[in-house]
Every structure is written in structure tokens, then in C-alpha cells.
Write a structure and sequence with these properties.
The protein is of the alpha+beta class. The chain has helices at about 15-55, 125-130, 135-150, 180-185, 260-275, and strands at about 115, 155-160, 165-175, 205-210, 220-230, 235-245, 245-255. It has a seven-stranded antiparallel beta sheet with strand order 1-2-3-7-6-5-4, with helices on both faces.
């Protein structure tokens, strides 16, 4: 055959077939390695996908310590009556919350023990039970008159204690309009810049919490945050007032020794989001 050396046709010499077989063996080996690489690549991709789908604490070697946040259930706003606007819609001139106020109170985090006293009757808390949060009888009487003068409609509340001993109380106070609520929130100095007008139980001296992160603000919801100043009593107390349309909120957290900042900030932010 043209192109082949004469030695290839000598008697007893092998034909070119073995070279073809050798080429096939090489091809099969290459295919086996290619398949193996493909399988490993697929396994690697699926493992990477699995890690991206897992929480960081679920991956051995990547677990991180908790930053102090509580495990709240998934939050959803209650439905609005048909045709009713949201509190900060342009057409809602009164800034009214048309959703059930009782459904706007932040739920307790998982593992917390709920305070039955703050459940009230049918979910509504008597005004005197809200006022019991304040230390001075004179303050309670004065604030009670302010609430009467401004036509307080409802108080909804919830309280709980977490396993670390932190006590949380949340009160939502609803008025006729946002203008009336503003008169209570700012008008009589309830939320003065340096200190609250009325001292809550366990915190005779409180000042503005300058360490509260500005980035934690929620649009349309104003807040004034205080923390008990040293020396503390048996517990340190943190408190925040929120102004959201026709509704004002008071959030109080206290804990023996020191009230942690992170769960307080988390609680204030989530309650603000429900009202916003």
C-alpha cells in the first residue's frame, strides 16, 4: 500500500491492527477519566449548592456564635378591611391604622414565656394597667388625664420573659387621628430630647440612647429611645416610644444586671415595621 514502509509487509510482521487497538485503549481511558472528572464536578457542584442552601450554623466548621438576636416567628401584617388604605398612604389623611390593632402587636419570640396579665380582656388592656408601667402616682394621674383629653381609643399590649431573664412589655395606644397622637407624643414633652417626661418602673434616671444605630430606622415611624443611666437598680431598663400615624407605642425591656442592646433594638425595629 502506498505510504507504508516495506518492513510492514515482511513475512511474520504484525499488521497495523494493534496500533488501532492501542488507540482505542487510549480513547477508552480518556473517556473513563473524563466521566470521572464529570462525576466529581457534579458532586462538587451539588455540595456547593447544598452549602449555599444551608444556614451558616448548619455547616461544620462554619458555625458562628449568636449575636444576641431572638428567634421571632415569621411576621405578616394583618389584612386590611376591603377598600381601606395603609396608614401612610397619601389618601389616608388621618394616618389611621384600619387593621386590628391587637394583630399589630409584635408576637413573643420562640422560647419566651408570655405574660398573661398583659393580654387584657378580649385583647384590649385597661388604661390603668398600661399606666401601671410608670413609677410615680402623680405621673400616672397626670398622664391618665392627658390620654382622656386626647381621646385614647384602645390599648393593645403583649409581654414576655425570655430564658435569659429579659422582661419585655409592648403597649400600642391608638387615637382618633395622627394629629392627636402627635399632640401626645410631642406636645406635652412626653418624649423630651434628653430624658422621658415620666419615669417607668425600675428606671428613676434615664437618658437618650446615643448608641442606638441610626440605620435601624423604619420609614414613616419616628422613635425616641432611652436607656437607664448608671448606677442601675437591680435591673437595667431600656425603653422606646414610637410614633406611627394614629398609634403610639411604648416598648420597655429590663434585665437583671444589664439589659442587652441587640434584642432591644431588634424588638423596636420589628414593632416599627409592623406599624409602618
Amino acid at each position: 500500500m502506498p505510504g507504508l514502509p516495506p518492513a510492514a509487509y515482511a513475512e511474520g510482521q504484525p499488521s497495523p491492527a494493534p496500533a488501532v487497538k492501542k488507540d482505542r485503549r487510549v480513547l477508552r481511558a480518556v473517556l473513563r477519566w473524563t466521566a470521572a472528572v464529570t462525576v466529581f464536578a457534579a458532586l462538587g457542584a451539588s455540595t456547593a449548592y447544598g452549602i449555599t442552601r444551608m444556614e451558616r450554623t448548619d455547616v461544620p466548621g462554619l458555625a458562628t456564635e449568636s449575636d444576641g438576636r431572638w428567634d421571632y416567628p415569621r411576621l405578616t401584617r394583618p389584612p386590611l378591611p376591603q377598600g381601606s388604605p395603609r396608614p401612610f398612604a397619601e389618601e389616608n389623611l388621618a394616618g389611621a391604622h384600619y387593621a386590628d390593632l391587637r394583630e399589630l402587636v409584635l408576637p413573643a419570640p420562640r422560647g419566651a414565656k408570655v405574660d398573661p396579665v398583659l393580654k387584657g380582656e378580649d385583647g384590649w388592656l385597661p388604661t390603668k394597667d398600661f399606666l401601671a408601667e410608670y413609677a410615680s402616682k402623680e405621673d400616672r394621674e397626670e398622664f391618665a388625664q392627658t390620654l382622656v383629653d386626647n381621646g385614647l381609643r384602645h390599648v393593645a399590649a403583649r409581654g414576655w420573659t425570655t430564658p435569659d431573664g429579659t422582661h419585655t412589655r409592648i403597649y400600642l395606644l391608638q387615637f382618633g387621628t395622627a394629629a392627636v397622637e402627635e399632640n401626645v407624643y410631642r406636645g406635652d414633652g412626653l418624649t423630651a430630647f434628653r430624658a422621658p417626661k415620666y419615669a417607668v418602673r425600675g428606671a428613676t434616671e434615664s437618658g437618650t440612647d446615643d448608641a442606638y444605630p441610626p440605620a435601624a430606622r423604619v420609614e414613616d415611624v419616628r422613635r425616641t429611645v432611652y436607656t437607664e443611666t448608671k448606677p442601675y437598680g437591680p435591673e437595667q431598663v431600656r425603653q422606646a416610644y414610637l410614633s406611627a400615624g394614629d398609634t403610639m407605642a411604648l416598648i420597655v425591656q429590663s434585665r437583671k444586671g444589664h439589659a442587652e442592646a441587640v434584642p432591644f433594638q431588634q424588638t423596636v425595629t420589628l414593632q416599627s415595621q409592623l406599624l409602618g
